[in-house]
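Hi all, posting the design record for the shared folder.

TITLE: backbone redesign
STEP: 1 of 1
STRUCTURE INPUT:
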């Protein structure tokens, strides 16, 4: 049991990048492949969680839009005229200035 624990600790240190000096090229290639497979699984899981979160947020948006419509009707306000597609296009077309400019603002060209 003690040897298994020690072996697991050595493997853990290797995966963390410690104690690699005595490793051969083949061992390093195996470690690299193992890390790449692990990283691939981690990224796949992260992407899955993001997709699930996006779906939950879309459902929440749908519920909030319905609630907003009901509240507008209750207050006697007209329904929103802008369609969902127009809103999405508007968000996509938002411009954000990312250039660094040093100098007087009036001389600046867009």
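Okay, here is what came back for every position:
SEQUENCE:
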């Amino acid at each position: 049991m003690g040897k298994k624990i020690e072996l697991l600790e050595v493997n853990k240190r290797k995966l963390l990048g410690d104690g690699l000096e005595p490793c051969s090229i083949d061992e390093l290639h195996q470690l690299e492949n193992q890390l790449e497979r692990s990283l691939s699984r981690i990224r796949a899981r992260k992407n899955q969680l993001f997709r699930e979160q996006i779906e939950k947020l879309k459902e929440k948006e749908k519920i909030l839009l319905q609630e907003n419509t009901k509240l507008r009707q209750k207050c006697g306000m007209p329904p929103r005229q802008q369609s969902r597609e127009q809103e999405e296009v508007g968000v996509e077309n938002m411009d954000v200035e990312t250039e660094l400019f040093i100098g007087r603002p009036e001389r600046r060209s867009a």
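COMMENT: The mean pLDDT is 84.
Let me know if anyone wants the other runs.
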